[in-house]
Amino acid sequence: MEIKASFIDQKRARANFFILGLFDGDKSAPKSLSMLDSAAHHVLQESLQKKRFTGKPGAKLPIYGTSQFKSTDDLLVVGLGKREQFSTEKLRRTAGGFLSQAKCQRAGQVAVLMDSFVGGSVRWQDAFEAVSDALGLADYVFDRYKSKPKDEPKKEIQTVELIYGKKDQRKTAELALERTEIISRAVTFTRNLANEPANVMTPRAFAEEARKMASKQKLKITVFKEPDLKRMKMVGILAVCQGSVERPHMVVLEYGTPYKSKGTLALVGKGVCFDTGGISIKPSKAMEEMKYDMCGAAAVTGIMHAIAELKPKRHIVAVAPLVENMPSGSAQRPGDIITYRNGKSAEVINTDAEGRLILADALLYACETYKPQALVDFATLTGACLVALADKASGLLGNDPVLINRIRKAGEQTGERCWELPMWEDFDDMIKGHHSDILNVGSGGGGTITAA
Q: What residue stretches are annotated with the Cytosol aminopeptidase domain (predicted)?
């Protein structure tokens, strides 16, 4: 699907589906619609006068098959709710919805009137980025392993045209599209890593995919294999992978070495390519979803994919430890004690709390090797976070209030909400070891906090 920007007066091919938004309480059709298609403007204005459409959130007014329209076969008006309450996240969800409807109509050419989605906290540039971002991501499907009947017609949109009304908006529109295309490609790459089945996306296969991406994106990459990890005393990674025939890897990606003097940003992502829980085995229900326990590693690898094209003037590294957590005669046991390269020892109370064991190695490596100015760790760490926040936000924990606030604000802007949880010293006693310095699980509640 191609997404492009065009000026309202520009000559264009007739669209199959034309989309615009109206806020609750709007009593007239957008003036820009009259510039584009006076007949469509007249029909919509007449519908509003007859109160056929209110603009409430989720409302839709499809106007089909009107041959008098100059610019489109069909028109879709979507309700945006109260203008003052409109946000970029609401716009993203709206855009994903109207893309689905356009597909159902088998529309090959779609046009969107962008100025009709400006309101509330959404500026014109925000609208352009949010809509192009949502359309690109909503078009994603992972169907690599599905057979495709030859006689089944495809519901594919060839082109989405985002129409702007002022000539001086052209440069902003083009830059917004370029940026969102870069991010969309990186997200697609990340989703593909995560969605592959675990028999395909093993630690070795993940490392190979990272190597291919790094070569294409011109990133520096180092892949540490088991002999390297033994030499480096990566005891957490080695302990977790003991029960699997798939051997561990650790991927390190690096961008922007000329900018080291400005400080380093380190990204660390948990990469458990399949997690059975080990000896402390998980229930069988939904265990197939444990292929997603490597999404932290996929995320930091995808971020580096985008960074290579966005080209920020910063030195950025990503570290992804990759293992499988399987039960077998050689697997680590509850009660095992491992001692990390910094001298701290950890007792394994529950082998299903394995992510923190491998992340400790990766975090130590990142800190010792790069001495980062800031470090951000991404992990599907514990189901306790789901208990606390459901699927509405990610848990956010840290020791730098300024960085935490920046991440939280970025999450609000992009629809990836985060909610800070405390890391008070009071929690330290909950993971104090019996025969070691620390335990790999806490006693009592606060599971997300003690995991971090």
A: 350-357
What is the residue-averaged pLDDT of the chain?
Answer: 93
Residues 323 and 207 reside in one and the same domain: yes
Q: Cα(450)–Cα(442) distance, rounded to whole angstroms?
A: 6
Tell me the residue range of the domain where 64 lies. Answer: 2-144+154-184
pTM over 0.90: yes
Separation of alpha carbons 103 and 170, rounded Å: 28
Q: Which two tokens stand for residue 62?
A: 């499809």
Backbone φ, ψ for residue 146 (5° rounding) = -95, 135
Q: Does 190 map to a domain? A: no
* Helix residue spans in 120-245 (DSSP H): 124-138, 170-195, 203-217, 226-231, 235-240
Q: Which residues are catalytic?
A: 282, 356
- CB atoms inside a 10 Å sphere around CB 218: 9
Phi, then psi, of 131 in degrees rounded to 5: -70, -45
Q: How far apart are the C-alpha atoms of 39 and 37, rounded to whole Å?
A: 6
Q: Which helix (H) or strand (E) holds 324?
A: strand 315-325
Using DSSP bridges, classify how beta strands 15-22 and 109-113 pair: parallel, antiparallel or unpaired: parallel
Bridge partner list, 252: 222, 319
Clarify whether residues 6 and 44 are in a common domain: yes
Q: Transcribe 89-113 into DSSP letters.
A: HHHHHHHHHHHHHHHHTT-SEEEEE
Please say whether the beta carbons of 364 and 275 come within 8 A.
no
